[in-house]
Specification:
It is a single chain. By secondary structure, the chain is mainly alpha-helical. The protein has a single domain (28-152), classed as 3 helical TM bundles of succinate and fumarate reductases (Up-down Bundle). Helices cover 60% and strands 0% of the residues. The chain contains 4 helices and no strands. It starts with 27 loop residues before the first helix and ends in a 21-residue tail after the last helix. 1% of the residues are buried. It is found in: Cell inner membrane. It holds the Pfam family Sdh_cyt. Its main location: membrane.
Length: 156
């Protein structure tokens, strides 16, 4: 006589153990963990690229002014580069904060409020950051020609 338990011997009406290894639905914790590792690697590459271009190429930190930023944000490549950096960093940070809230907040109602605040603040920052990146006017009307990018002189 064998004592192993198979699926046909399990009582479906019995409550599931909280330590059960099989769970129905999407495992959000697993995907959050995977996202943190992948986005972390991408963020390291993007951040060091950002620092290299802004601090080491050209005249270094002394070159960063409105004209420098305007010149970068007038190029679609840098708009999308900065958008990817913004999006990955905000979601990465939000997921980290979500993990901290889950680990240290015992009351479900407080945890729900904090999760809602995290999602709302992340959404607002993503929208505002995206608007700045994609609607930025590198040649504002009436600007001092010494402060704007060199390509704006033809427009002003």
């Amino acid at each position: 006589m064998t004592t192993d338990i198979t699926a046909e011997h399990v009582n479906p009406a019995a409550p599931r153990s909280p330590y059960a290894t099989t769970k129905r639905g999407v495992n959000w914790e697993k995907w959050g963990w995977i996202y943190m590792r992948v986005s972390g690697v991408l963020l390291v590459v993007l951040i060091f690229g950002h620092l290299f271009v802004n601090l080491f190429l050209g005249d270094g930190v002394s070159q960063i002014d409105f004209a420098f930023v305007a010149g970068k944000l007038s190029d679609p490549f840098w708009q999308w580069y900065d958008f990817l950096l913004l999006t990955l960093a905000l979601i990465h940070g939000t997921n980290g904060m979500r993990t901290i809230v889950n680990d240290y907040v015992a009351k479900a109602s407080v945890r729900r409020i904090l999760h809602t605040a995290l999602v709302a603040s992340t959404a607002v920052l993503l929208v505002l950051g995206t608007l700045v990146l994609f609607t930025f006017d590198p040649c504002p009307a009436g600007a001092d020609p010494e402060l704007v990018a060199s390509f704006c002189e033809d427009i002003l």
